[in-house]
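Morning F.,

Quick status update on the modeling queue. The single chain you submitted on Monday has been processed. Sequence for confirmation:
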Amino acid sequence: MMSSLPGIVERVRLRLLSNPALLILIVLHTVVCCVSLVTVSERQFYISYNPDLLAYAIVIAAAFSSLSLLFVVARFSFGYFVGFYFYTLILGFLWIDVFTKHNYDRKLAGLSAAVSLLVFLGPALLIRTRVKQIFELSPRALEHLLSFVLVLALGTILVASTYNFRLVSLSRIYDFRDELGFPAVIRYLIGITSSALLPFAFACYWTLNYRWRAAITLLLLLLFYPITLSKFAFFTPAWIVTMLILSRVFEARKTVILSLFIPLVVGLITTLFIAGPIGDLGRTYFNIVNIRMIAAQSSAIDIYNEYFSYHPHTYFCQISFLKSLVHCPYQDPLSVVMDHTYGFGNLNASLFATEGIASVGLLLAPIAAFACGLVIAFGNRLSAGLPPRFVLISGALLPQDLMNVPLTTALLTHGAAFLFLLWYITPRVIFASQNQAKA
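Structure tokens below.
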């Protein structure tokens, strides 16, 4: 064992030196995240900043960023995709944690968050062995399945539109959001089809060179916006096309990093350096991307930390099917509980805040994170053998979902479990004629 250690260290060193561009890109991303949060603090009262503590915050961020070396060494997988988004999420929390006005054990919270990410990344990055396919669709059966997905999505849109369909601007969606009410079945179908099934169908149709059918899937995705009045739904087609373009130009790992780095940089440039009407659009973009998409999710961990430092933990009773079986101190969803307490609106949060802090507390949160990492690792195994670009496009929405909602919600309500199954049964033969990119 000891004799193999120098060999392992040498291989890691060579991997780091073999891709300096990737390392530099990750370092730049880390810096941009911190600068973005300083800018966010000037526009959002719930994110604090004190220049007297800047040096301390930089030390914390620099120390934590050593974990980013894992993304230089590791090969691409679905866990890599999710893991880097979570790296950004926890980096943001650790920065906010230095300046926060919320009252909790900040040192313990920061340490718990960093350890939670580390133990999550262990299985999420390292477990990639392929599960033996007991069942695999034929190419013709896959096409039939894709047709069924389109029909199911169209049916879901038609039925859901009888409950709500409003063509309103993004600035007015919150005037009507409280009026939304869908039956449970429709609510699940909306989440599963829009987050998992249609992106999978798009990736398959693009692979099979069925461009018009791929375009139809994007149109169907856009039609969920007037139904759900969600910014996420509005930008979903553009996000998938962005991943398509980036993955065409860059290898998979760079695509993952650039998918966050570029939007953050654009937000900073447009809000800091451009004035006039274009600057106004830039500030709107900054609010949507830099604040809502990234900073708000890091801030949610900060808020959950304070709340559950004074209130009982859930021990997972917030999960719907468990709530009916065991006593639960919270009858409303946690997002609603946070709204009633802090008044920020329904505050959904990632697995680090929900399955971790809310469920078991700071000391046991790393154990919960490790278990969640094993679930993502299972997704790695089911997607093994698929081209990285296909995984990136078909799974393009899941990292964003996982930054916003608990893992259990992402698996069921947002269809991640269904996407895992689809990856498993996808016929690998349809990729035989393509050059498979290696991450």
